[in-house]
Amino acid sequence: LGHGRSVHCQTIRMGFNSNIHIANALISMYCKCGDVKDALYIFKNLDGKDNVSWNSMIAGYAQHGLASQAIDLFEEMRQQCVEPDAITLLGVLSSCRHAGLVQEGRRYFNSMIKEHGIQPELDHYSCVIDLLGRAGLLEEARCFIENMPTRPNAIIWGSLLSSCRVHGSVWIGIEAAECRLLLEPECASTHVQLANLYASVGCWDDAARVRKLMKDKGIKTSPGFSWIEISNEVHRFRAEDCSNPKMIEIIAVLYSLVDHNKTLRYEPEMQEEEIDDALYI
């Protein structure tokens, strides 16, 4: 973010701050770096907004889970007679997905062809399937996939599989896993999710079978990385890595967040035993 701000200052000094393409890039940069406030300031003060301007701001809101702001901005875009495109609707659908707005997501998806003449692409279908899956509407999600005019890709089946694991729908999950493995037979995450799905309903033999299949094929998962920038310093985290000197403090904060979520009647996917395993592995 600091480097981005430096570049922004340089564009002002050079007199390029009113250039539509540079302004659009700055909006996107600030949104991706988590500074939605500055992105909105540039957007509001930009003359001659084009589709990229609107799309960048809507996508920024969607990225940070600000669904109501994304939808309000989309409606404002329509009121100003700016015709949305496929990327605009993708941002709106993504915001609905993150906020769990099922009815709104259905409405905007159906409006693509009926109102805007936009043919949905795989990314749009993927958003709707993920939206339905997160809401627990797994049968509807599966029917949605079956009625797609194009062949679903591995991302779509993976999305349905993840939702099945969360909601404990074993058989739809198995179907999704098998379909994804036909497209990506060496995908480690699919094997892991399938094993976890079996384990979540107590089918330990089947879970062990999938794990053994991974071992026999030599399929291994790659550790995931996360990072966050605080005071111009980037902190990196890797799955199952306890080398961070502040790990005890991090785990304490994690426990605090888990307890807080429980007061909100939200049951986290990560159980306390898993947190302990992550700490002492």
What's the short version?
With 281 residues, the protein is mainly α. 68% of the residues lie in helices and 4% in strands.
Fold topology:
Blueprint: H1 2-13, H2 20-32, H3 36-44, H4 51-63, H5 67-79, H6 86-99, H7 102-114, H8 122-134, H9 138-146, H10 154-167, H11 170-183, H12 188-200, H13 204-217, E1 225-230, E2 233-238, H14 247-263, H15 272-280
Antiparallel strand pairs: 1-2
How would you sum up this structure, described in words?
The structure is a single chain. With 281 residues, this protein is mainly α. Helices cover 68% and strands 4% of the residues. It is built from 15 helices and two strands. The chain starts with a helix and ends with a helix.
What descriptive keywords fit this protein?
single chain; 281 residues; mainly alpha; Serine Threonine Protein Phosphatase 5, Tetratricopeptide repeat; 3 domains; 15 helices; 2 strands; disordered C terminus; repeat; TPR-like_helical_dom_sf; RNA binding; Pentatricopeptide repeat-containing protein At2g37320-like; E_motif
